[in-house]
Amino acid sequence: MSPQLYEFHLPLSPEELLKSGGVNQYVVQEVVSIKHLPSQFKAFQAAFRAQGPLAILEHFDTIYSILHHFRSIDPGLKEDALEFLIKVVSRHSQELSAILDDATLSASDRNAHLNALKMNCYALIRLLESFEMMTSQKSLTDLDVGRKNKKSQSKAAYGFDWEEERQSILQLLTQLLQLDIRHLWNHSVIEEEFVSLVTGCCYRLLENPTITHQKNRPTREAVTHLLGVALTRYNHMLSATVKIIQMLQHFEHLSPVLVAAVSLWATDYGMKSIVGEIVREIGQKCPQELSRDTSCARGFASFLTELAERVPAILLSSMCILLDHLDGENYMMRNAVLAAMAEMVLQVLHGDHLEEAARETRDQFLDTLQAHGYDVNSFVRSRVLQLFTRIVQQKVLPLTRFQSVVALAVGRLADKSVLVCKNAIQLLASFLANNPFSSKLSDTDLAGPLQKETQKLKEMRAQRQSAAAALEPEEEWEAMLPELKSTLQQLLELPQEEEEIPEEIASAKTVEEVKGHIRQLLAKARYKQAITLARAATGHFPESEPFVHTDPEESEETRFLNLLGIIFKGPAASTQDCNGSIVPGQSDAPSASEPEGSRGSDELVKQEMLVQYLQDAFSFSQKITEAIGIISKMMYENTTTVVQEVIEFFVMVYQFGVPQALFGVRRMLPLIWSKEPGVREAVLNAYRQLYLSPKGDSARARAQALIQNLSLLLEDASVGTLQCLEEILCEFVQKDELKPAVTQVLWEQATKKVPCSALERCSSVMLLGMMARGKPEIVGSNLDTLVSIGLDRTSPPDYRLAQQVCQAIANISDRRKPSLGKCHPPFRLPQEHVLFERLRDMVTAGFAHPDPLWIPFKEAAVTLIYQLAEGPEVLCAQMLQSCAKQALEKLEEKSSSQEDLRQTVPVLPTFLLMHLLSLAGDVALQQLVHLEQAVSGELCRRRVLQEEQEHKTKEPKEKTSGSETTMEEELGLTGATADDTEAELIRGICELELLDGKNSYLCAAASLALGKFCMISFPDEPLFPSSATFCDSHLRLLFTMLEKSPLPTVRSNLMVATGDLAIRFPNLVDPWTPHLYARLRDPAKQVRKTAGLVMTHLILKDMVKVKGQVSEMAVLLVDPEPQIAALARNFFNELSHKSNAVYNLLPDIISRLSDPDGGVEEEPFHTIMKQLLAYITKDKQNESLVEKLCQRFRTARTERQHRDLSYCVSQLPLTERGLHKMLDNFECFGDKLSDECIFSAFLTAVSKLRRGAKPESKATIDEFEQKLRACHTRGLEGTEELEHSSHRATPAKAQSTGSRRQRLASVSSDGDFLMPKSCRTTRRLPHTQRRTSKKRPKIVFSSDESSEEELSAEMSEDETPKKTTPIRRASAGRPRS
Known about the structure:
InterPro entries: ARM-like, ARM-type_fold, CND1/NCAPD3, Cnd1_C, Condensin_cplx_su1, Condensin_cplx_su1_N. The chain has 1377 residues and is an all-alpha fold. Helices cover 65% and strands 0% of the residues.
């Protein structure tokens, strides 16, 4: 068939070209074999050189054969075919530009060029797709190969760079489509198949996952431009829209690529309508379907979000289509729509010059964003806060919305999602950094000016109201005059018609009534009706003033304006022209007052704006203050990122001068001990920003500012706060971040070289001492100066300064126990040093004076002597002798003065005995520390040095001596024996040499001294049996005072002392453990706080057995004191890190807290359990707890316990296996479901499970819920039946629980002394002796039984255990018997 006679139809699949089609349709005649392909291809090349691009008409079968055998033919032939086809299409494209302009082109030639164009494009595109497919498969098989030299590997495989070749083909096709090739088709209508051929190739290239790689960027751009030409010239919009939607649904990686393409088409190619079409298709998607197909929703959401960032103005008109997705279940679509709204506010709808419609749209978008700040999904709430953060940072949030958005952020601080809380903190920080009010936001600083300016505004308004009474009609007339003129001119231009008499005139009897109607219409701005009524009145009352017409030359407009002005302002205004001009002869006094009135009005407006500004600033400051209280509680969250955000927030708040920020800055100090490096570094960075970069013109000024800021932290700081600050300063000093000027100014203040107060001087010494921990030479090189500063013989002595001097000097010594490998002796000063002389003088001189600061100074002095002095026991013995001598002298004076009064018992002043006991206790305790650390360490050091010396001098022949000695050395028993010998020596000194010897302050000092002396004892020591019972014999006295002393200070001190004893002598204190737990319910908050700290330390260090009595710690979670409640939260946070500790204790805690005899009220129970159950995160633990709680329903005694158990079940995150556990144990609680609270609790648990349940589990959930409802209904019916037989039922007597705080009894006799409540004796009792009467079953555990028996066990003195079973200090994970 002649090439001019057939027609080439583009096939849907290559096989269609082999089949016989319609009349004159081209069919491939022969598929050339692989063997003959090279020769046929050369013939095609020769024909092209002779005939040009039309050669394809006769040789298409050759190209088709190459495509058919593509996987099998030689790679060189493939490459030659591709290069040749590129040349053919390029040549054809060049020739077509001239052919299309030829008006004399015949139909046969046109048909030949059309067939050639379709054949060339079909062949080139199919070859392109074949190469692309082979490249993709090869990249998948070569994934394990390294990424190096991929480009060279591609060239080696094909002989050319495929990425560059692909880009050139796409550019060639783009160039071809830019020609007006429509004229080759009949009626200039290009067939859809040809456009689909070209664009389909583009879409298939985009489906390759590697298209997003940076190396393929030129290909992406070429595809985008090719599709852009198809859109603009070949009506491809509908197909492109459908294809883009399909690709978004199936290829998640394409969102950024398609966004770039669509934004380019909308801007560079002018195809803005495609944005609307795509958005319309997305908007019409069913929200329910998107909730099931998350992959599709993710693609749509990503596309919308990025598209809004690129072309927000174009997308704005289509936003109404997407609003339905805000009510859908898929949170990603909600986030995308909200992000698009935010982008439009950021880029389009901002500024003060918005039109009314744009302003309304912006307000609607912001309203929607605020509403979704309370979305049910935490990711949406978090996204809203992030979007508001961007809006605030770019300063496009209207001032009128500041308060509401700040309130939203403050409210979200209490969100249960950590991510939401974190973003809420970031939003508040952005508000602070970009607030339009002030750089200092203090409530107290803003309240004064606000009150003053508000009062001034009230006065100005009052003056204006009184002054504006006479001018009010004039001002209103001037204001309405322009609009009134315009309305009058419009009415006068209209043709006059026969007007009906208005109703006002028909019903009016006098002129005054008509004037009143006109005045009311003008006041209501109904100008048209007023003018119409005035015209009618002029004809109805022609002879009455003011409607009479006097001046015939006056225009109708002026006449009516004058008439309306006279009626509105009254007769007095008739002399003034309506335009404001004065009639000749009229006084010009009123015109002089007009500027004054205008100025007064402007001043009033300015004052109103000032008051509004101050009010907004004050409200903003109050909200920030409220947020500080909430955020400070998040300082110790488990999530590191949240803690870091909290720290950064407080840094910013402090920089803005909010007074309450100092609380947060102090509160973050303990985080310096955090195990998380990120948190510790955040604290250090915070203090760097706050204190190491102060403002100042010189280095000295900056140093003074730094010292002043640090001194503020020292005011009223606790010991823990000072230790944390010392750690931070030590870190700064070691890294040389504190400038030398700081040290210089501190020394100048300490030595009074610069004027400063006593408090500033004391703070300087304290800071120098903290810095000395990092660099001891700061104090060590100026030791004499420091001694002369704080220990001089001044009158009266400054004990506070002296105490700080002692603590500063103590930092130059190494407090740690010397290591065995040290060759140098520890740093000590001789006894004759002036430091110890001054200390001894100050202690003895102040002993006889009742100064409350003497005791803490004395304690610091004794500690310093034992740390630095050679032979400190000699110095302290001299101090004790001198003080005891003064006490005896006082006693003799009292006794001699009392002889005349015939009194036989001399009385020593209370403070003297208190000072003496306190000094003796401090010396005793420091002597113990000195012996166990310094002396023991020095003995070890000397022994090691001696052994090293002997080892060096030992002869080689001695190595073969004594097999027994050699074995001891190999086993390391020699050193162990020496250690034991040294330890026995230290114990002997403590036992034999140290212990052979109703005022509140006296009682506190005596009890504390007793506790310190007990610390020295060594029980159960066979070497010293005569003195080994000192601690054991005084424990009864200590715990009796701990239990019954009426003084909170004594109980608090003894709690600390007994805690130390529990660490030192765990076997002795173990029987008394219940009395330690009992202090957790002490009526004094000081004692409860101390008990909480002590028990936290003992439990976390595994020094006491953790029993069900730990429920007393749980009760502290609802303590009215915030500090105690925070302490309990911190305890359980730390305990939760110990494997299954909280899980193991929960059954006992639930049992005790829900006990009607000694538990807590229902509301506190809910609060406690909600927090404790939050620590149960493992599914297996949840399932086990569910089963245990369900089984407990059978043994619970009261309805209250049933409700408590059901509440605990509702708080657990139920799983599918947990549901099966509940179904298995349904009989345990089914009969309790008649109670509404219990039924509601189980429904709550079911609803939680239903939210994230799988579709296959919903049938089981529905079945369980039906069983719940059936039992609930049956229970209600059973209740109604029981009402008829209520005469036989005996109501259970309610047991009221009293206050959990114990009353403190007084110690009146020896019988009131407490005994250890040991559980060992009672456990040996037979079962019949323990249960003498039948009772209802009680919820008990092993620890419950022992605890109740312990509480009821009263031993006599002879029953007190003398020898106790040693307990092992096991880890928390070890099971306890």
